[in-house]
Amino acid sequence: MLTAVWQPHLYAKSMRIAREQIHDQNRRNEAGHREALNFLTGRLKKDGHDTERLLKSIADFQLAIPSWALGTGGTRFARFTGGGEPRSLEEKIMDVGLLHALNRSSGSISLHIPWDIPGNATEVMALAGELDLEFDAVNSNTFQDQANQDYSYKFGSLSHTEKSVRQKAIQHNIDVINYGKALGSKALTVWLADGSCFPGQSNFAKAFQRTLSSLNEIYSELPDDWKMFVEYKPYEPNFYSTVIQDWGTSFLLAGKLGAKAFTLVDLGHHLPNTNIEQIVATLMMEGKLGGFHFNDSKYGDDDLTVGSIKPYQLFLIFNELVYGMNNPASTNPPPAWMIDASHNVKDPLEDLLQSVEAIKLAYAQALLVDHEELEAARDNNDAVLAQEILQQAFRTDLRPLIAEARLIAGGALDPVSAFRSLNVRKHLIGERGFKTVSTGL
Amino acid sequence: MLTAVWQPHLYAKSMRIAREQIHDQNRRNEAGHREALNFLTGRLKKDGHDTERLLKSIADFQLAIPSWALGTGGTRFARFTGGGEPRSLEEKIMDVGLLHALNRSSGSISLHIPWDIPGNATEVMALAGELDLEFDAVNSNTFQDQANQDYSYKFGSLSHTEKSVRQKAIQHNIDVINYGKALGSKALTVWLADGSCFPGQSNFAKAFQRTLSSLNEIYSELPDDWKMFVEYKPYEPNFYSTVIQDWGTSFLLAGKLGAKAFTLVDLGHHLPNTNIEQIVATLMMEGKLGGFHFNDSKYGDDDLTVGSIKPYQLFLIFNELVYGMNNPASTNPPPAWMIDASHNVKDPLEDLLQSVEAIKLAYAQALLVDHEELEAARDNNDAVLAQEILQQAFRTDLRPLIAEARLIAGGALDPVSAFRSLNVRKHLIGERGFKTVSTGL
Amino acid sequence: MLTAVWQPHLYAKSMRIAREQIHDQNRRNEAGHREALNFLTGRLKKDGHDTERLLKSIADFQLAIPSWALGTGGTRFARFTGGGEPRSLEEKIMDVGLLHALNRSSGSISLHIPWDIPGNATEVMALAGELDLEFDAVNSNTFQDQANQDYSYKFGSLSHTEKSVRQKAIQHNIDVINYGKALGSKALTVWLADGSCFPGQSNFAKAFQRTLSSLNEIYSELPDDWKMFVEYKPYEPNFYSTVIQDWGTSFLLAGKLGAKAFTLVDLGHHLPNTNIEQIVATLMMEGKLGGFHFNDSKYGDDDLTVGSIKPYQLFLIFNELVYGMNNPASTNPPPAWMIDASHNVKDPLEDLLQSVEAIKLAYAQALLVDHEELEAARDNNDAVLAQEILQQAFRTDLRPLIAEARLIAGGALDPVSAFRSLNVRKHLIGERGFKTVSTGL
Amino acid sequence: MLTAVWQPHLYAKSMRIAREQIHDQNRRNEAGHREALNFLTGRLKKDGHDTERLLKSIADFQLAIPSWALGTGGTRFARFTGGGEPRSLEEKIMDVGLLHALNRSSGSISLHIPWDIPGNATEVMALAGELDLEFDAVNSNTFQDQANQDYSYKFGSLSHTEKSVRQKAIQHNIDVINYGKALGSKALTVWLADGSCFPGQSNFAKAFQRTLSSLNEIYSELPDDWKMFVEYKPYEPNFYSTVIQDWGTSFLLAGKLGAKAFTLVDLGHHLPNTNIEQIVATLMMEGKLGGFHFNDSKYGDDDLTVGSIKPYQLFLIFNELVYGMNNPASTNPPPAWMIDASHNVKDPLEDLLQSVEAIKLAYAQALLVDHEELEAARDNNDAVLAQEILQQAFRTDLRPLIAEARLIAGGALDPVSAFRSLNVRKHLIGERGFKTVSTGL
Questions:
Q1: What are chain A's partners, defined as 3 or more CB pairs within 8 angstroms?
Q2: Is the pLDDT of residue A381 over 70?
């Protein structure tokens, strides 16, 4: 049974998972886990790995959960409600708290304004603090109109032909910074849907210049210890052109904006067959990789569970990230990690647990790669050996290590299974009802 | 000024465009048109073309307008209302009437159930008849749940694992047939969104077999003079697999269903770089091309204005269609032509006028191809000459011929410009208001 | 040192790897292997798996090696020789013998005519027999002209507009059957490069009909216990259309040809993002999946090492294959397994060893999937659980099982490393020289 | 009959087309041409166009012909000879002379070293001068090894891990500059095939840095009035990564190199669905668009005849080019125009004539666009009108204008038809024989 903690001054009727509940769950699988862990650490040590350091790195790796991924998403065709979805910012924070209690790796939440405007920042921070959560990058939204909006974003926002619309979008981003400041966020993520649906509709160069000018105004309001992340995407919701269509365009903007501006990579925002890991390497080489939105996809920006389609590509990307992060010559700051997914057919919380697990697995596999050996193979143009080295890391079953890092931090050995055993969703439906819709969905 | 005809027993406050209004418009451009036409027909005759026959073929070519394309569409991110959109089936019919008055080529409407359930079939038919419209294929909808629906289509409909859901979807399709019978439709179009979002989620073969079985039950209710069109699509709204993922799967189903079942090709439902014209040729060769959904796209199922991205591909497809239709050995029935587009940034009616124009242009260009000459070049493996023959047709400016066919039929020389001069949208907004939403959008 | 066995009456100066040499290699890693195997089999047994049966299935799985993959390939831009490549059919057989000695899973060779015309079938069969090899499907070649060829395949072969060229291509295929009969082959693989490079160049329907007619003539010469495999491919070497562009076209042809005709799937022969596993499932459902060409790719028909780019997709495909093969209701005959890769930067033999390993790993992972559990999750539309089941199999490190199956059969624990320790390539260069070119490359 | 001019001191046995021969051809079609031209210019003038200026712009537009496009290309599968192909640099120049005589728009040749090393620069320049040809950018080749090459490019050239190979490739590029200086070239085009075929094979950042360092050495040898064009390409001949994979990477390099370095866009070097026109606009905005390689493609770098697959995209690209070139604020130098195609099934010279025609047509269409009107529509977010403006230009049949520009300059009204009537290929085969292979193919 779940422990429902009532703290009426902060939030009403919200559920939490108590440590003892997780311990109860873990006790059932602990013997098997212990055996597998021993075998694995034995192997790793024999191969010269420092398993304690591995465990620490894995435990330290935290992922931000976006507030909009806690409810069921939808397509342009339909949205099928899932039940028990959070109805308020506080409930979204509670949901991330549940995830973090289970996997101890979801220690921050990324808010989306205006969907998540914090009414009382102090109380919201207190709630988050109680759940051991921080506030990651804040996200602005200029891709849809709010009710009774005076100027429409139908034809763009920061790149709009009309100054009044741009001004509105600029002010919105500044507002978002201010909301973030109150919560302790340190970054603004700008995803711009601006673009065009038809050849001729837009003047590419002018749209770029207007965007740059708008971003400059926002940048000038950015606190000194903040970063601005500029996302790129080739298409959708515009179907002919997007103002920031690729990493090159984002990088160009970030360079013109200044030292606090960075490119953000969303795995789903690429044309078919793009070599994303090379983009990652290039951006880190230039010190301009600001952050990451994790998801997986087969066709377009499908926003599927991380690692559900191309786990090897995920590993290859992490191989570049780890290499870049450990490169003493690198000037790239530590990237911000966030999941960005949409859940049409899965329980959003289960989906997020699977995503976090897949990310941590890929990260751990990448930690296993012996870069000295790899560089030697590369210097030798030994493609066979280079592949063996990568596959050796990828094929090793590192799940016991991830589980152990979680266990040490107080999380569940098997988060999805604990989520189910504890009937979390059923409790949430009981609290919130079945036909709920998350703000913004 | 527009003539607003009030016929309270059929529909209230609806606008029509009178013939004289169109004639007034045409008078302004007629001299220029006449001159261009004379030059063109002179050229064509010199090249051995029967311009009267061309004009007749062009005039006879009619396109069905889907009821859902009359309002502004949207993406999963946002929907920006356009103003004056039809609020009822009757208003949708009126909108198609406006299109048909302008271009004389939009002589039918394709209904989507349950968005367009006709309350009183007799009155609806009377209204359509008055506007010189017929009812094209009826479309079922099992990709979204209606309010208070007992069984959900969240995990599929005709392919669902549970019999009760399948039964509901089957019955819905039978209902759609019955609605169509009352209106004089002769075909049912089945677009099935069924599929899966994740590897493992679905058993491909079982999903196919359940779909076949469901379609068989619907097929058995199909009147003898009806056709069933089975659409295919590789992805969206499912992002890992779709039960009917490609023409091969649709063709397999159509073959198993029987002589009244056909494959329907939607231009946007293909993977990148697909040679669609070859698929068209293959289906016609096998006598199984049932119909066409026209649109254009750059990335996925973008549903853009026909001919706005790849007009040459459109021409190549028509080249196959004309060849197949004129092939005396062909057993393929005349395909059903329909536009299937979504309008996010354009006025839906203007967009449809542009689409119809692009289709008729491509059709006329295809009529210009000398297939005897082309076959001779092919027999000779003369790729240079074959290209010259096609480009000669494509590069010829046939707009005067299209305009003339329209003029003879009582339509506007330049429909988009007439639409604007007559302030049609302004009148519609006046009648219907700005913040309207079409049923189903 | 390698044992060079001289058997001048069969083949000259060819190298073999003796069992003792492999045993020497294995002894070094055996302790570690034994420990890992014990852990793994313990785990698997605890989960209810029959490890003996798994081992047997893995050991029984044999892959055909194509004769053209034994030398260095090239692109249209360049070819960089690798050294020690086989100069004759006999040397190619010897190379496959080396692979088979190392991994005991490459027990057959697939010949390509006219590159590998066996001079003396009896001697060739004796050589193969001695190396424990069989002859897999024979492959015809009508995509390039041989020196002084009377009719050119420049504009096609079985689909050519001229009867004389078609006749030549038909006769060639019949010759290939006859070569195969002499060697004990039981299948003919037809990969047809026929198509067109430009719109207009080819009449799609006529090209299909001519192809069908040509294939019919070949089919009529096919022995009763043979199969004909019809390959499909969307593009290359033709860049506008290919006569057999997709599985639907191949399936249509196979159906018209008869019960001995099947579709062959080459992993690299698909448009971007194709769901290949669904195609596999559909073909098996219809009893028409004849065979498989394994490779991997990121962009087009890249012919890379199997499993080097998308190992999870490979596993998903095997999941369908294993399901289809174990389905008692299936009428599909056991598919023929072959690698089809091209090696531009790797040692061809090392590349093939890596490919075989990746295939066996994916096969073993698929064997691990509990299909009863999976079907239950599917019936329940539990996408989360279905994914857990598949990932549980994929993430398990089954390499010790593959190694053990190899060990039992007399092969090397680690074939690539044995290949290197034994200096195989160095010996081959010593025998054959550096600047050799395989026939056909 | 063709006039074969013998100038034994320069080149032997080469054919030329005399002006009178072209006049004879033109006389046959002149009446029809005159009539069509009058109609067209009448229309254009009525719409406010300065037809004289249009004619001049069209006539001035010159395209460089690459020396390697004069023979039949091939794929990795086969090469089918075409007959009468040029066997030497001199014969290649003669071939371009034939093209230029026919269309008066192919006034320069782009050489490829080492395929076209000029033995005697003075004589080569004299020959070119006589044919009214100049020497465009020179192209280096470090993607294949020459016979007996000491260091191999198998694993790269300017990015190679070994200094000796890089040094060789650097020196080769410097040699190419020197050959170009002697001929009056003003630019070096670097297309780098360097990359990797397998994950892990290459260190992305190090490969970039080595490439940059190598390019810097070459750049330092570049004369002050020269430009360096840095090409990009996502894949082929490497199938996992390419060092300069996209415009962003090329732009980054060009920026680091200096003011004489520019990005070169090859239409076939993009991932599926890329919005190339936006890339062009961005590069021109930044003053970094150096040159263009024209071709067309459906799948990858298919190198098909320009305009044979996506003529509307070609027009959209020219729309950006014309806008950028006429933008007084632009700092971009006039881009270098070159065709880069490969001819597998067409006569290379006929193919090139078709390509030049398609390019000039797209250019002329772009000149027709009223940019003031277009900007007004854009400022108004009138996507419908913007499309009408572009389509109005694209749908206008401008062939008479192109023909007239050619006629005035002394070229043929219909170059392909003149090429055939004059039996050029037959004469070339007579001179050179059938089984010739161009150097480098």
A1: B, C, D
A2: yes
Task: Give how far B67 is from chain A: nearest CA, Å.
Answer: 15
Distance CA D202, CA B42 (A): 64
As for the ipTM of the complex, it is 0.96
CA triplet D391, D397, D403: central angle to 5 degrees? 140
Q: Which of residues 242-271 of A touch D (CB under 8 A)?
A: 245-249, 251-252, 271
**Is residue C361 less than 8 Å (CB to CB) from chain A?**
yes
Contact B234 C273 (CB under 8 A): yes
**D397–B396: do the CB atoms touch at under 8 Å?**
yes
Taking contacts as CB-CB distances below 8 angstroms, the residues of chain A near D281 are: 204-205
Q: How wide is the angle at C-alpha C356 spanned by C-alphas C351 and C360, nearest 5°?
A: 150
Query: What DSSP letter does each residue of C341-356 carry, written as one string?
Result: ---SSS-HHHHHHHHH
Give helix D276-285 / helix D311-326 axis angle, nearest 10°. Answer: 10
DSSP per residue over D352-399, as a string? Answer: HHHHHHHHHHHHHHHHH--HHHHHHHHHTT-HHHHHHHHHHHHHS--H
Task: Please give the angle made by the CA atoms of D11, D13 and D18, to the nearest 5 degrees.
Answer: 95
Cα angle, residue B125 at apex, residues B122 and B129 outer, rounded to 5°:
140
Q: Given pLDDT bands bounded at 50, 70 and 90, which one contains residue A10?
A: very low
Query: Looking at the predicted structure, is the pLDDT value of residue B147 above 90?
Result: no
Would you give the distance in Å from CA A174 to the centre of its chain?
22
Give the pLDDT mean for A18-37.
Answer: 95
Give residue C11's pLDDT: 53
Please judge whether A299 and C399 are an interchain contact, meaning their C-beta atoms are less than 8 angstroms apart.
Answer: no
Residues paired with residue B135 on neighbouring β-strands, in sequence order: B109
- 3-class secondary structure, A181: helix
Q: How far apart are the C-alpha atoms of D24 and C307, rounded to whole Å?
A: 63
Is the Cβ pair A201, D378 closer than 8 Å? yes
Cα angle D29, D32, D34; round to 5: 100
Q: Position B391: which residue type?
A: Q
A68 pLDDT above the threshold of 50: yes
Query: What pTM was computed for the model?
Result: 0.97
Cβ-defined contact of A387 to D198 (cutoff 8 Å): yes
Q: Which of B227-231, C103-107, D340-344 has the lowest mean pLDDT?
A: D340-344
pLDDT, tens only, B390-416: 999 999 999 999 999 999 999 999 999
Taken in order C283, C286, C288, C291, is the CA torsion positive or negative? positive
Site from B146, B299, B340 to mutate, A interface, most A CB atoms within 10 angstroms: B299
How far apart are alpha carbons A309 and C390 in whole angstroms?
11
Q: Give the percent of chain D with pLDDT over 70.
A: 96
* Cβ–Cβ < 8 Å for A69, A341: yes
Residue of A241, A273, A274 lying closest to D278 (CB–CB): A241
Q: Does C438 touch chain B (CB under 8 A)?
A: no
Quick one: which of C348, C414, C306 has its CA closest to C68?
Answer: C348
Helix axes B19-46, B89-103, angle to 10 degrees: 50
Residue of B nearest to A82 (CA): B154
Which residues from A are below 8 Å from B76, CB to CB?
73-76, 237, 342
Estimate to the nearest angstrom the gap between the alpha carbon of C346 and the chain centroid: 18
Q: Is D148 left (phi over 0), alpha (psi -120 to 50) or beta?
A: left
For chain C, which chains pass the contact test of at least 3 CB pairs under 8 Å? A, B, D
d(CA D1, CA D21): 8
Mean pLDDT along residues B344-372: 97
Structure tokens at C81: 């020789």
Residue B5: what pLDDT?
Answer: 43
Measure CB to CB from residue D299 to each of C235, C302, C303 and give the nearest one. Answer: C235
Residue C319 CB partners (closer than 8 Å, separation 6+): B200, C277, C366, C369, C390
